[in-house]
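Figure 3 (text version): structure tokens given as input.
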């Protein structure tokens, strides 16, 4: 399957979705494994470009929303605190393993408070969630983002969609905000349950990655999924 990473560049959102379904796991940007990211797989005209007038375009970035709302893929900071996609086929095993190494936050912790707010609110963009959790003081943004990233790595928060501000003409602009939610809310509790043990899930995932990435080292694969 390694030849999938050396074929024709990907030119469209549907092509990228088909590829993610095939490989199961795909970081959005540089993963530390050569060729193993959406950014490296798409055609040149789908990558980030800055225009002379200061504007920019990045088709790959815009594809994130349709891929996430398609319902067949999970998106979040899953790979060494970097964003990427996981097919729903592989989500139960990935969730099973990651949650075993990142137990449910204890009562009274900030992580527990974040999950409680999302449980009640359903879904929120990051800044709304930050305010609801009381992180409104100076230099609070980076601290809060670190907690949210850890919860995404633990498969306890995922991205439901992306929300963009609009100009006075109703046109979307900017980088957009992640609309965060609990995977149980988005996919259902059964989708977050796996009959295998966490170790069995880990071995299943790493065996699959060895198959599709035969040139990657064990250290690289371990760093990707630990």
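Below: residues designed for each position.
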């Amino acid at each position: 399957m390694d030849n999938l990473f050396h074929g024709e560049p990907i030119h469209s959102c549907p092509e990228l979705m088909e590829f993610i379904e095939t490989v199961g796991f795909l970081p959005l940007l540089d993963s530390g494994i050569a060729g193993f990211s959406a950014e490296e797989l798409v055609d040149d005209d789908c990558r980030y470009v800055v225009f002379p007038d200061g504007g920019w375009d990045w088709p790959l970035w815009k594809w994130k929303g349709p891929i996430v709302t398609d319902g067949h893929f999970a998106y979040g900071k899953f790979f060494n605190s970097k964003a990427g996609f996981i097919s729903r086929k592989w989500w139960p095993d990935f969730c099973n393993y990651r949650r075993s190494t990142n137990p449910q936050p204890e009562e009274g912790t900030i992580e527990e408070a974040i999950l409680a707010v999302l449980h009640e609110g359903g879904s929120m963009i990051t800044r709304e969630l930050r305010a609801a959790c009381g992180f409104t003081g100076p230099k609070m943004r980076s601290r809060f983002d670190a907690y949210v990233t850890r919860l995404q790595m633990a498969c306890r928060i995922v991205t439901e969609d992306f929300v963009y501000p609009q100009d006075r003409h109703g046109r979307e602009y900017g980088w957009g905000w992640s609309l965060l939610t609990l995977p149980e809310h988005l996919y259902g509790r059964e989708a977050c349950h796996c009959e295998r043990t966490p170790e069995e899930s880990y071995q299943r995932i790493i065996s699959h990655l060895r198959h599709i990435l035969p040139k990657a080292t064990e250290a690289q694969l371990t760093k990707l999924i630990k």
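The chain has a mean pLDDT of 94.
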